[in-house]
Design brief:
The model has no long low-confidence stretch (mean pLDDT 96). The protein has 65 residues and is mainly β. It is elongated. It is 12% helix and 49% strand. The chain has one domain: Thiol Ester Dehydrase, Chain A (Roll). Strands 1-4-3-2 form a four-stranded antiparallel β-sheet, with no helix packed on it. The chain contains one helix and four strands.
Length: 65
Amino acid sequence: MNFRFRRPVYFGDTITCEFTITEADERNRAKAEAILSNQHGEVVVEAWLTGVLPGHTERAILAQH
């Protein structure tokens, strides 16, 4: 994970996260980016992430909840 903190966040702020998977390969490895904005639409954090997508077994477990 890599983060870029753009603006301060204060008590009482409402933060919205937009998370987008930008790449996925045949081994279920993925890249994503996240943009966190405050209630005024100002970007407060940008993030770039890599990880592993859930497999069939994990998806079945997640679907039960």
